[in-house]
Design goal:
Elements (H helix, E strand, L loop, with lengths): L6 H12 L9 E6 L29 H5 L3 H4 E11 L4 H10 L3 E14 L5 E10 L14 E3 L11 H10 L4 E4 L8 E4 L12
Parallel strand pairs: 1-2, 1-6, 3-5, 6-7
Antiparallel strand pairs: 2-4, 3-4
Helix pairs in contact: 1-4
Length: 201
């Protein structure tokens, strides 16, 4: 470590201050977030490849917008954070985790039968795991950090296998941000579901 302050360090400090705990939020012990990254789509060819999307089917947010989400305020001291990211936004995933007051512990990888990519064929999606103040595993532990999954039914939709994996490790109450569907035993927030909480950035 060089000890030299960077722009990312300043951004993390500012976001941490903005997301300080406040009254009115429930304290969740499990928070799952699938951020709407501003991903650049490849495949804008004169003749589009069959089944390859050229536009994202949902609204996106910038890193600065996501940093303002009060994630720190909704997690208990023993909260687990599960954060989906992509190869393109892997570094930003770590920035968000730190800014929201969580410490990175491990990466879990969902492995698909097939994939796409420009330079490598990407068959994995990365799920970063972090904890808030106390790293405790009251349920299962010592699970492999890989989850075999089928190809998703629609772009960015996550698999039942990954929800079951998380539920086996992280106790409730549980919350999913940017949820695309309601799952039993979870509170949800997002513009594609009927949200259970009000979350103001």
């Amino acid at each position: 470590m060089s000890g030299i302050a960077t722009e990312d360090d300043d951004m993390t400090k500012d976001a941490a201050a903005m997301s300080a705990p406040s009254a009115g939020y429930a304290e969740y012990r499990c928070i799952l977030i699938d951020p709407p990254w501003q991903q650049e789509m490849t495949g804008r060819y004169k003749k589009a490849r069959r089944r390859r999307a050229t536009e994202l089917p949902y609204q996106t947010m910038s890193l600065e917008q996501m940093l303002r989400l009060p994630v720190k305020a909704i997690g208990s001291a023993e909260a687990h954070l599960w954060l989906w990211t992509t190869n393109q936004f892997l570094e930003d995933g770590f920035i968000l985790m730190r800014a929201w007051g969580f410490k990175y512990l491990a990466a879990v990888h969902a492995i698909k039968p097939s994939g796409l990519g420009n330079y490598f064929i990407c068959r994995t999606q990365t799920l970063l795991f972090g904890y808030k103040e106390k790293c405790r595993f009251p349920l299962e532990r010592y699970k492999p950090n890989v989850i075999e999954v089928p190809n998703p039914a629609r772009h960015s939709e996550k698999w039942d296998e990954t929800y079951r994996y998380i539920e086996a490790i992280s106790p409730g109450p549980r919350l999913e941000l940017f949820a695309r569907r309601k799952r039993p035993g979870w509170d949800v927030w997002g513009n594609e579901v009927s949200s259970d909480i009000d979350l103001v950035a």
